[in-house]
## 1
Amino acid sequence: MSEWTIDTTVGELLRREHGREDGARITEGWPDLDLGTAYRIQDALLARKASAGQTVVGVKLGLTSVAKQRRMGVDVPLTGWLTDAMALTPGEPLAVGDFIHPRVEPEIAFVMGARLSGPGVTAEQAMGAVQSVHAGFEVIDSRYRDFDFALPDVVADNASACRFVISGHAVPPGGLDLAAESCRLGVDGDTVDTANGAAVLGHPANALALAANGLAERGLAIEPGWIVLTGGLTDAVPLHPGGTVSVAFDSLGALSLTGTH
Ligand code: OOG
Ligand code: MG
């Protein structure tokens, strides 16, 4: 494509998503794509999904842990939108063939009890707006070949968002030590990684505050009832048909996700 605009980029990213096809970085053809414009692309992509009937159910953070930043080669956290069409119910399998190259990552998820509106939100204020804490999995599926992107590319691509699931077990935030909360990630029963909540910007509440303050720059807030995924604690693992990825947290319980054809 010769002329990249917000509209043509949205069209191209949706074409890849629907066609299960990856492609080159947008910044290859649009090298001066800046972060502000990339978020406008992300919002325009959401508007297209909303006009197709999807509703926003929350927000995700990405690249909040060193494990993720290192793997993706981008060390700036970002946010993306979660819609109802992305939600899996616990136990529901993932039809791997419906996606490009899905990977699964364990996350600490919040369900919000109160509105959280920046700027200037502190981690303490952020935690005060949380209704419950859950074990979560995010399935990411970059619309870029080999997950190869620069920051503006991945922002435009709604932070590689694809599917997510949170456990039905709602843990009240009071009494939890989320920095110390540890998880064990398993693939087909073998432990492949471990991490604790401190991996996420020192504490997942810092990620929540960052999201609220970042959205405020776009005139937006985190709304009651929304789900917030605070970012992968470990590197993501590929999901294959017949494979199972599982996570066991100390206090938040366990989750597993099985791939089918
Ligand atoms: C970008 C999204 C990162 C996380 O939890 O860090 C993300 C990617 O890795 O493709 O969702
Ligand atoms: Mg994630």
## 2
Amino acid sequence: MADNVGNKIAKNFSEDVPFMESGNFHVKGASNLDWGMKDRLSRIFNPDTGKTIMLAFDHGYFMGPTSGLERLDLLVPRLEKYVDCLMGTRGAIRSSVSPTYNKPIALRASSGSSILQDDLSHESMVVDIEDAVRMNASAIAIQTFIGADGQKETIEQLNKAVNLGTRYSIPTMGVVAVGKEMERTTQFFLLATRMLAEFGVQIVKTYYCDDFEKVAAACPVPLVVAGGKKIPEKDALTLAYKSIQGGAAGVDMGRNIFQSQYPEEMIQAVVKVVHEGYSDIEAYEYFQHLIN
Ligand code: R5P
């Protein structure tokens, strides 16, 4: 039986105290990593701001051609210049993304289910690490389903990815999955993000939640926040702003960019929030200025 009864609840996160200084590397928790890891992390996280904007277009790996992603070859060229990193599958990237962009790739390396199923929680690492090397991936992304049916197998697959990534100095981005029935509570994200970090990932992709500062403080590696389902642009910019203010090291946004009526303008407004210190209100004004 897990020691989950009578356990003292964590509450002292010292959110206002910066993460320990050890060296001058700009990525949280990465000071002691190998040069190759640091090089790849520096391609993802801008050394000047310490932040990243990932453009996520990997949804087709379980959803098929979702709205906005019908033609990757037409979409990605419109947006790539504004973002720090491209997140997609090897099939999408090899077929539809030009290597001349010279953008770091966060390679989606897990799969195993589709929207035809109720339970999406059974995923494995399906991309060989050698293929990630061939693609010059700057990170491999593995989905992990904490608290769901697929927990054990996805934890094993995540650890396998960390082992292989460590062998070749390729960072692993642990992706916190949220099942249909699962509540998006602070307690859940505290648990899931910390578990993934303790398994050894160098980046955690997660969702925004109440008391996000606590989640960020308790996670010793950078958090990158997913956008989630399409919401009004103003709200998506507030989500990005609150995430950065709460300690996120960036966003990994998909639908709130490519399902906007104005994808180029939206991504430029997100850049202002993530890299230039704009508030959500200022960024929305900027967005409106661009579209008018
Ligand atoms: C989920 O399908 C993928 O992991 C996406 O990359 C991730 O959820 C970010 O995309 P969005 O902002 O559309 O949620």
